[in-house]
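Is this the right way to post structure tokens for a design question? Let me know if I should format differently. Anyway, here goes:
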């Protein structure tokens, strides 16, 4: 399959999925989210792919939702779309994150530059996260007048704890990789020139382990995560975002243009 917003590279048991909109710092529009979901759903049935690395081309991993072309821009401007179509557009991000999380291969987020909003949510859906020391993280949604959605709230709380997650989401303060590692958000922080070597080493070591044991271990962690009713939460917050975006589109559009 050919993608417009992604580049897929395979090297034996390791596959790289690159967000490929460097001119927009890999900001996410509707097409990008649809292609992320399609790519990771396809990788689930690629049994030769044992490790998948998610990274970003250019200066940043992912700058969040594309403010010039947000995931539901056409509907937000008003097009007579019905409620089912509006809800579908509001949940593109949820479906992309679920596809990453359901991928049978071990997933590694390779983070550099910026991981903002939805970009951080993509990383949270991965099994492991490695970032450069210069990476910057930010959850700006509340300041933009919308709730953090796509199931990112429970995923962030699971990674860093509820108190820290509330601080990140409600205060909307930027934080650097050293703090992210200290909070438990990252597995490893490395020098910028070392990230490809470290990610490659981890991917190789994981690919060399007994596949069945790795697969079942990931399945066990997935079952543990599902002890929290994540599906119910993501359905609800998707509808909240739909309401914020479509019932008062003028407010949302003015917020994202700031």
């Amino acid at each position: 399959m050919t993608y417009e917003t992604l580049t897929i590279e395979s090297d034996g048991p390791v596959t790289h999925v690159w967000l490929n909109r460097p001119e927009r710092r890999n900001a996410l529009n509707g097409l990008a989210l649809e292609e992320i979901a399609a790519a990771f759903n396809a990788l689930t049935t690629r049994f030769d792919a044992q490790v998948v690395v998610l990274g970003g081309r250019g200066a940043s991993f992912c700058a969040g939702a594309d403010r010039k072309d947000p995931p539901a821009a056409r509907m937000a401007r008003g097009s007579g779309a019905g409620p089912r179509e509006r809800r579908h557009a509001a949940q593109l991000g949820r479906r992309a994150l679920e596809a990453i999380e359901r991928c049978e291969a071990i997933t590694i987020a390779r983070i550099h530059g910026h991981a903002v909003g939805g970009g951080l949510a993509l990383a949270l859906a991965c099994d492991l996260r490695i970032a450069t020391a210069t990476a910057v993280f930010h959850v700006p949604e509340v300041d933009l007048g919308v709730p953090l959605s796509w199931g990112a709230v429970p995923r962030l709380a699971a990674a860093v704890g509820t108190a820290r997650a509330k601080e990140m989401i409600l205060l909307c303060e930027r934080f650097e990789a050293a703090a992210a590692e200290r909070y438990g958000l990252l597995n490893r922080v490395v020098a910028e020139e070392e990230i490809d070597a470290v990610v490659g080493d981890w991917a190789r070591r994981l690919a060399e382990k007994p596949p069945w044991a790795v697969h079942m271990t990931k399945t066990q962690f997935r079952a543990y995560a599902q002890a929290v009713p994540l599906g119910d939460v993501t359905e609800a917050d998707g509808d909240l975002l739909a309401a914020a975006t479509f019932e008062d589109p003028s407010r949302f559009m003015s917020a994202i243009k700031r």
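Format looks fine. Someone answered above. Worth noting: Residues 230-247 form the longest helix (18 residues). DSSP finds twelve helices and nine strands in the chain.
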